Amino acid sequence: MKTKSKRIRIRWAGAALMTLVAVGLAGCVGAGPSPSPASTADTADTAGSAVSAGTESISPSLMATQTPQTPQTPQTAVSPTPSGVWKSIDWASLGAPSWAADPTQFQVFGWSRGYVGFSIKPNSGTGDTPIDPTVVSYYSPDGVNWKEGQTLDTAGAGTQGVLMEIRSVIEGPTGLLAVGWSGACGSEYLDGLWTSSDGIAWQPVNTQKAFGQNAIAIPRISGGSAGYVAVAYKGAGVWTSADGRVWQPVALDAPGFKNSKIDDGTAFSGGYVLAGTYGTPDCAVTTGPAPTLPPVTAAVWWSADAASWTRVSLPGAMSSSDGQSISVCRLSDRALMAIASKWNNTSQTSGQLAWVTTDGRTWKSVTLPAGISATNILSDGQRALVVLPVGDGQTVSHLSLQTFDDNYALVTLRQSGNQPSISYMGSPMSDGYGLVAVGPAGVVVTDGHQLWMGTPSAS
Predict the structure, then answer these.
(1) How far does CA 154 lie from the centroid of its chain?
(2) What whole-number distance in Å separates Cα of residue 345 and Cα of residue 352?
């Protein structure tokens, strides 16, 4: 029991550093349209105007306002979003979510059939005996009209009393997978999985049974219509799943992964994709000054069935001794973006490259402006939004919203109405997950006091 108590103290000690997680370690994850008959999102979309849903985070991180905004008259209904590339967003207040168990801790995520929300009430134990938090779920078809769903079974998911938030909600072939999380910076922990076919009823997945002891350090879980992918910290392990409940390890000792390190992974209509680097191993024992890092090259690995993997070169990716981190996220269930971030500690320089694909095997280079990472990309599986906070580091005056056109160039959305203003320092939700969601009715924002609906227009 002493080990468990020590683990809890380590996790909470890092909470003040959680903004670093949103900037550096988190990949873009989210929901994508399920191919099941229950899904309503099977209309074809263009690759440039599509994306995976709802859990991508904002960097720098956002959190609840300290001073509530003056409520407007809540709107009561919304229309389905227009087809094509969005051009503008009109904001309106939905009022305070008085139905939530704790509005200051309310998180929202979008998927092809609506929105889901969670309110977490942390609980504390005495001595070495943790008490699981209370997690209440909510659901809405339009982001406006909400109903309370199931209280999640945290004990069955193996949270061990330390769940801090729902990090993402991913839509895959059998429905939704909610990912619970705690920790900060280099001490991230997977603290619970729950599956749902409808966003209303949720069943726990025992993470210790699914992943073994490796479950304590899995910072990245993503997926799409082909299945789900989980990647352990520093590429220590990779797993795939067809239903979010039963997970199979990827044989990283196979010849195709020799001298490679996997950073991220996802799945979409084109199969499974892992992203990372390959090159010279750096496990040699050395003495004296720290050696120069061995040269490595960014690459992706593709598989149709998560059994046989093929390494795919990225055009323009060069072998380099600079530090590198590779992420891959869905711009839709039919399009992926890989982002390679590089840094040199000696020269204090950094840079990034980006590529897109519609099949996982053929990639083309695209231009992604500096300051945009996978953590800024949100989607519901149909279209992508790049969400950036604009403010002074304490209060966000507004959210900058951009989308991709058919050539993957960013288009800034015009915004009207009384826009949400969000403070983002000193909250348990300071990493920004679950504060902004893209769904079938538009963009929903929670600021800790009220909800906001951004209704899109194609004009």
Answers:
(1) 21
(2) 15
